[in-house]
Design goal:
alpha/beta, single chain
Length: about 900
């Protein structure tokens, strides 16, 4: 496209739409397992097909894309495996809610009909997610796209289950688990959100069976007392030693239960007497096993009371039962008192229902044998967490790990590969569906109806996506992967389990580095979510600002490991940068003649006498080093900041302006300036490409270039010969002078085009020499006509002054502005600001205000007062400069 057709205004819709299709058609994202380049592999944390991508996904996919593109340009054979997760409980919940709105439910429909509905939902969400990933510019290898329920991945799941079963690490047992009455399924410990709640502690009197008085126990869940099988005391509690062995009459039931001694009881909780309900509390379950207590389940799976609760309670909702129990206890004089009580209540992580501890037969994985190797690889530094502080969290969880309940009582997911022979009772665990019982030959086999926890399949993602259990070329070439980028909240659900699974089945950890990014929040600090109504669709932001602007903004404010606070306004950062880059590139291209082609001339070497050349090439080299080092240490925001500062400040604001005089001079001087403009812009675009892929490709294609795509170009090489600290220091001094003069002009209202005079009072020979050498730069960049050195300590009349180290810079204002008018304006402004300061200081001196206002409001007023003081100081200084 001819450069003169470059639009005046940057329009991301015109630019972004075409380039993704170009990259994809050219096959740039497709990895070659036969390549001899070093591999760099990322497997995408598969988004759930529950819904579509949100801003947390946008941040994470941007991080991964930056890592992939930069490594590709640095000579690696890169592979980014895309895919989605079936998200068992969550996806079935979403579909069941939609069906309920139509008056249908899964039990009426049956398993196959429900699964048809879920597959339809999955296919629709999957299509949207893929479109979102492409719109964001994600360099995924779509030929290797995976879904956690693909046939090959399903085979991997069965292989793992069978192998763990054969090793004795998978077992079936009756145990107390977390149960969601709404989802009607078991949950792992990590799937329970413990929310601080304002509850009540109920003190209930239990009569002795022999009529000899009563004792008092305290509980937060009185409805479960209907399943009590003992009351326990601590064996060291002197208050109750004599009671051990006596019997109580359990209120409302007529059953007799013993008083037992168990060291688990906390003497300081409540009365020191604890009701024991083995079927409805995990600690009580353990006590029950130690004392051979009966397990009485007084609740049904749906949260209603069972027949075992008694005729008057059976069928009641658990909370309705609580109210009735309290009512009856009160009527019998057995409810001693009720206290307010703050405690953590477990909620289902998917539907927020209060969970119930529930005795149930489930499938489990023994975790301690798997955890120790996973601890060791981190201790040895073979797997590193970024930020490093997450290492301790990882250790704490694995060192105290409990067995993992992996069965779920839903229909969407990998059905457990276990069959029961209805003829002889044989349990068959197999990778392939059996036709008959291997013991008795009966064909009456029934498969276990439960499915596996979603995380059971996703723990295999780093190697199942590459072809395991077959020994594929992809697996040999790209496993272990390189980096995992994900959110900290799934360090237990997923990260740790992937490490355990990789070590167990592949003999190697699945990745060497784990980058844990922060949580995306709104500007008030709330986590973005649909339920709060503050979620933002990435496609909406792309439509308004462009994908590059969204990506660059996200990564710029994503300091390593810290949360992001987003507002729509913040995305102007990325859009403004894109506009700046576009306009600067347009200017540069307009000044290239049609036959200008520097691509075959080799590395450009700066002349010693040309400060601007030496400086900009040295700054480019330093920026390339800084960006590379920041990427290698996962400081992606620092990498973005470095290239932003270089392009916006050094290149656009300084070098382009400096080059204008050289271009106007013509001849060799203009040719050199154009070559430097091209060299620096082309290199800087390569540094920026991983962060803003679309606009950099578009501009690069318009520049004289070699090759098909900027993505195929190598990373910017650094060279010690380009490092020129003397040029950078000298240019910094010149820039300080120019900025000081510009600030004076701005503060004093000097018209932009009117040349000023500069008087420099200095005894610094280095400054004097630099000014003399580079007076032309200072005159052009600061709009200065004459430069004169005056003795140190001299004070020209009616001049504004700036201090630069031990030197002073004076700009005489006579003739530049109306001094009387400016003095009057400054006095009026000083009076106005003084009045505002007085009002704020009076407010802060008022004890009624400071004693009642929130701390943040008071802090804001103090900041305001300091701002007024600073303004007054500047106004008085300027008045003094003008002789006022």
């Amino acid at each position: 496209m001819p450069t003169n057709e470059m639009q005046k205004q940057y329009d991301p819709k015109e630019v972004e739409g075409k380039w993704y299709e170009f990259w994809d058609e050219k096959g740039y994202f497709k990895a070659d397992p036969e390549s001899e380049k070093p591999s760099f592999t990322i497997v995408i944390p598969p988004p759930n097909v529950t819904g579509v991508l949100h801003m947390g996904h946008a941040l994470n996919e941007t991080i991964q894309d930056i890592l992939i593109r930069s490594r590709k340009m640095r000579g690696c054979e890169t592979l980014w495996v895309p895919g989605v997760d079936h998200a068992g409980i969550a996806t079935q919940n979403v579909v069941e809610k939609r069906l309920a709105a139509q008056g249908r439910n899964r039990h009426q429909m049956g398993r196959e009909a429900l699964l048809d509905e879920v597959w339809t939902w999955k296919n629709d969400r999957e299509r949207i997610i893929i479109d979102q990933l492409k719109a964001m510019g994600c360099a995924c290898d779509w030929s290797r796209y995976r879904f956690t329920m693909d046939e090959r991945l399903s085979r991997a799941v069965r292989r793992v289950f069978v192998r763990l079963y054969e090793k004795g690490l998978v077992y079936r047992g009756k145990y107390i688990i977390n149960w969601c009455p709404r989802c009607q399924t078991a949950l792992a410990d990590e799937e329970v959100d413990h929310t601080p709640s304002a509850g009540k502690l109920y003190h209930i009197q239990y009569p002795f069976a022999d009529g000899g008085g009563r004792i008092t126990v305290a509980t937060t869940r009185p409805e479960t007392m209907l399943g009590d099988t003992a009351v326990a005391v601590n064996p060291e509690d002197e208050r109750y030693k004599a009671l051990v062995g006596r019997e109580l009459e359990l209120p409302l039931t007529g059953r007799k239960i013993p008083i037992i001694a168990d060291s688990h009881v906390d003497p300081a909780f409540g009365t020191g007497l604890v009701k024991v309900t083995p079927a409805h509390d995990p600690n009580d379950f353990e006590i029950g096993l130690r004392h051979n207590l009966q397990q009485i389940a007084v609740m049904n799976p749906d949260g209603t009371m069972s027949a075992a609760a008694g005729e008057q309670f059976a069928g009641l909702d658990r909370f309705a039962c609580r109210r009735k129990v309290l009512e009856l206890l009160g009527a019998q004089g057995l409810l001693e008192k009720t206290e307010e009580h703050q405690h953590a209540v477990g909620h289902c992580y998917r539907c927020d229902t209060v969970i119930e501890p529930y005795v149930s037969t489930q499938w489990f994985v023994k975790m301690k044998p798997l955890a120790e190797p996973a601890l060791e690889v981190v201790r040895q530094g073979k797997v590193k967490f970024h930020p490093e502080r997450w290492t301790k969290i990882y250790f704490d969880w694995l060192e105290n790990i409990r067995d993992w309940c992996i069965s779920r009582q839903i229909w969407w997911g990998h059905q457990i590969p276990v069959w029961y022979c209805e003829a002889c009772g044989k349990v068959i665990v197999a990778e392939q569906d059996p036709d008959k019982c291997p013991d008795c030959g009966s064909e009456r086999l029934r498969q276990d109806p439960d499915v596996l926890d979603t995380w059971f399949s996703s723990q295999l993602w780093p190697f199942s996506t590459l072809g395991w259990p077959e020994r594929t070329r992809d697996l040999e070439r790209f496993y272990p992967t390189s980096v995992l980028s994900t959110a900290p909240e799934i360090i237990f659900f997923w990260v740790a389990r992937m490490i355990m699974a990789g070590l167990e089945f592949m003999g190697e950890a699945p990745f060497s580095d784990v980058y844990l990014h922060g949580t995306v929040r709104d500007e008030t600090g709330r986590k973005m979510s649909k339920s709060l109504g503050n979620a933002v669709d990435p496609l909406e932001l792309i439509g308004e600002f462009g994908a590059d602007a969204m990506r660059f903004t996200l990564i710029s404010i994503a300091a390593t490991g810290t949360d992001l606070y987003l507002s729509t306004e913040k995305f102007h950062l990325g859009r403004n940068f894109a506009n700046k880059l576009w306009n600067a590139s347009r200017f540069v291209l307009m000044n290239f003649p049609e036959d200008f082609d520097p691509t075959g001339s080799g590395p450009f070497e700066a002349r010693r006498e040309e400060l601007a050349e030496r400086w900009i090439l040295s700054r480019l080299d330093r920026t390339a080093r800084d960006v590379t080092a920041a990427l290698d240490s996962f400081r992606l925001n620092d990498a973005a900041s470095a290239v932003y500062s270089f392009l916006w400040g050094d290149y656009c604001d300084w070098y382009i302006e400096l080059s204008k005089a050289s271009i106007a001079a013509g001849g060799e001087q203009a040719e050199r300036a154009r070559t430097v403009l091209w060299t620096v812009l082309e290199s800087a675009l390569r540094l920026l490409h991983p962060f803003m892929p679309f606009i950099t490709e578009d501009i690069w294609q318009r520049l004289p270039h070699s090759g098909e795509s900027i993505l195929q170009r190598p990373w910017v090489e650094t060279s010690n010969s380009r490092q020129d600290e003397a040029a950078e220091a000298e240019m910094k001094l010149v820039q300080d002078i120019v900025v000081a003069v510009r600030n004076i002009r701005g503060e004093m209202g000097v018209p932009p085009g009117r040349p000023a005079e500069l008087r420099i009072a200095t005894a610094d020979s280095r400054l004097r020499e630099s000014v003399q050498l580079h007076a032309g730069i200072i005159r052009r960049m600061a709009t200065v006509e004459g430069i004169e050195f005056i003795p140190a300590g001299a004070r020209p009349a009616a001049s504004a002054v700036a201090v630069l180290g031990s030197s002073e810079l004076f700009v005489p204002l006579e003739g530049l502005i109306d001094l009387d008018k400016e003095r009057e304006k400054l006095r009026r402004e000083a009076e106005r600001v003084s009045g505002l300061l007085t009002a704020v200081e009076a407010k802060l001196a008022n004890t009624n205000f400071t004693g009642r206002a929130p701390a943040e409001v008071i802090a804001k007023e103090r900041d305001k007062a300091q701002s007024y003081r600073d303004s007054l100081e500047r106004l008085h200084l300027n008045l003094t400069r003008l002789g006022g």
